[in-house]
Amino acid sequence: MKYENFGTTLKELRKKRSLTQEQLAEYLGISSQAVSKWENNISYPDVSLLPALANYFQASTDELLGVDTAKRTENIQKLCLAADGMIADGRYAEAVAKLRLDLVQYPVNDQLLYRLAWALTGTIQEHPQNLDEAILIYLKILETSSDATLKLKAMRDLIYRYYTKGEDAFALHYAEQLSTFELCREYNLGRSNLLSGRDLAAYLKENIRLFGNAMLECLEYFTAPGILAPEDADGYSAEAAKEKISLLKRVLDIDR
Q1: Which of 81, 130, 173, 225 is deepest in the core (most CB within 10 A)?
Q2: Same fold for the domain at 6-65 and the one at 76-178?
Q3: H helices within 40-147, ranges in order?
């Protein structure tokens, strides 16, 4: 099979890493003459070698084959949506298996890696070791990703993964790195007077829902048995919390 632009792409990747044809050939277990023929588009590698090449250069197979960037992005979005559907349905093991295959094609894609970590955490009852793998993936995202939002998600998830593992000090470490309430988008967007009309109304309604539910969660801690000792509650009794919960539910017009 002929791969358009493969030779040029391979040569650029090799030179970027200051590698000789001999070094690449040794890694793949082939002759340097074979690498030379690839780079000059005289011959092309067997398809079974593409994952090894992609992994070596930390690139996707699409990048190696010169697939259009927009098409590659579209393909990744489709894979992410498929994984999201499996995870939403609780088909974690299926999602893990599918994402591992997807990552053969796109070995360093942060979005796929993040979803793999999420899916792995859904399988830890049957496979406890998957928790450690998920943590390693989150740490890799923090170290290498250029996506600021994804890094924040990874940091948030590490709080709960380390807590699940019983490593509270690490969980607290990542919790303390997240932004404070005063710095969050939800708090500041409306206060900045940047929104108006329907946009402002939608923003305010969403904040009422978001912050109202956060208040309910806090109040429910005071009513849950075994969570807080009376002396730790500092006079905030379960009865008082229940009254506030009832009032807040009426204000929010929800049934919880």
Answers
A1: 130
A2: no
A3: 50-57, 61-65, 69-88, 92-105, 110-121, 130-144
pLDDT in tens, 134-175: 999 999 999 988 899 999 999 999 999 999 999 999 999 999
- Superfamily in which the 76-178 domain is placed by CATH: Tetratricopeptide repeat domain (1.25.40.10)
Query: 6-65: what CATH class?
Result: mainly alpha
Pick the closest to residue 112 from 90, 132, 87 (CA basis).
87
Query: Exposed, middle or buried, 140 (CB in 10 Å: 0-12/13-18/19+)?
Result: middle
Taking the domains of the chain in order of start, what are their residue ranges?
6-65, 76-178, 193-252
pLDDT for 256 equals 46
Taking only the tens place, the pLDDT of each residue in 170-202 is 999 999 999 898 888 888 887 888 899 999 999
Using 50, 70 and 90 to split pLDDT, how confident is the model at 254? low
